[in-house]
UniProtKB/TrEMBL annotation:
HAMAP family registered for this protein in UniProt: Ribosomal_uL22_B
Keyword Zinc attributed: no
Organism from which the protein derives: Terrihabitans rhizophilus
Function: The globular domain of the protein is located near the polypeptide exit tunnel on the outside of the subunit, while an extended beta-hairpin is found that lines the wall of the exit tunnel in the center of the 70S ribosome.
Pfam families: Ribosomal_L22
Assigned protein family: Belongs to the universal ribosomal protein uL22 family.
Subunit structure as annotated in this protein's UniProt entry: Part of the 50S ribosomal subunit.
Alphabetic keyword roster: Ribonucleoprotein, Ribosomal protein, RNA-binding, rRNA-binding
The UniProt record lists the keyword Ribonucleoprotein: yes
Protein name: Large ribosomal subunit protein uL22
């Protein structure tokens, strides 16, 4: 008598992984996400491994999670996976205040981001 399973939002040849509340601005995270969009999974992992951006480590972790979801949950072949989408979304912004000269205050914003990576199995025709 459990709940009925709801239908899958993604097609059968896709899998996704989400990471919420990453402590980086969406603009900086999008620079790294652009680096891997449309690439094969092995190439994307290599690019993230040698990227000099601090946030590349978290993006790599999310991509590895999407690959694991594709392999274990949806029985997709890892060698044929391509990064179909890499969405960057805006999350909350913490506001902090810092004292400035003459009794004024400076507002410091600490933004957070959400990241969604979708991998798709593409069969190579030879």
């Amino acid at each position: 008598m459990g709940k009925q399973a709801r239908e899958r939002r993604l097609p059968e040849n896709e899998a996704q992984a989400k990471t919420r509340l990453i402590r980086v601005s969406p603009q900086k995270l999008n620079l790294v996400a652009q680096l891997i969009r449309g690439k094969a999974v092995a190439t994307a992992l290599a690019d993230l491994q040698f990227s000099r951006k601090r946030i590349a480590k978290d993006v790599k972790k999310t991509l590895e999670s999407a690959i694991a979801n594709a392999e274990n949950n949806h029985s997709l072949d890892v060698d044929d996976l391509v990064v179909a989408e890499a969405h960057v979304g805006k999350a909350l912004v913490m506001k902090r205040f810092s004292p400035r000269a003459r009794g004024r205050v400076g507002r410091i914003e600490k933004p957070f981001s959400n990241l969604t990576i979708v991998v798709r199995q593409v069969r190579e025709t030879a």
